[in-house]
Amino acid sequence: DAGVTQSPTHLIKTRGQQVTLRCSPKSGHDTVSWYQQALGQGPQFIFQYYEEEERQRGNFPDRFSGHQFPNYSSELNVNALLLGDSALYLCASSLGADRDNQPQHFGDGTRLSIL
Amino acid sequence: AQKVTQAQTEISVVEKEDVTLDCVYETRDTTYYLFWYKQPPSGELVFLIRRNSFDEQNEISGRYSWNFQKSTSSFNFTITASQVVDSAVYFCALSDITGFQKLVFGTGTRLLVSP
Known about the structure:
The structure holds two protein chains of two kinds. Chain A is mainly beta.
């Protein structure tokens, strides 16, 4: 039973570029959430996707956008990269319609470095 | 707004010592979930426990125990007889109880267990 998988593992970009990060949820999960974790900080919620729509969004600018595909996998896109976007980006999956609110399962993350 | 505070930035103990990680939270919701996650150097967030605000019973799982006190808005985590493998960053988190979790994390406590 595959857990949450993210790609790539590491990525180096320069300021102003654009980046796309990918996430495949745990088998059976239909909801994907993205978090940004700066060095030495706790993860910050970016947004969440369910049924191919953005359901919730944290306090992040429009440069951060996403997409969910019919197979529940998801992409996180960041445009016009800034030095402050350097962070570990974590993807988490869950069963959104599960009212028992099972805990989110996290991937290993993508470490994004901006030069 | 929801907020989680982990005042202990780093704790160092010697193997077999007991250690308690503190977590204080703020929320206007009357019902909510509290979580603890472990983040080893690999980066993946590992789920440890979820506690519903309805249930203030303490919980023990092996060497781990949790003390939830709604009156003081605290959800502390104790590791008994710590081991080197317990070395990691531990995060406390808070969410509402809808089917779509938006986790609010604390800044984490780094635990170093030396032999």
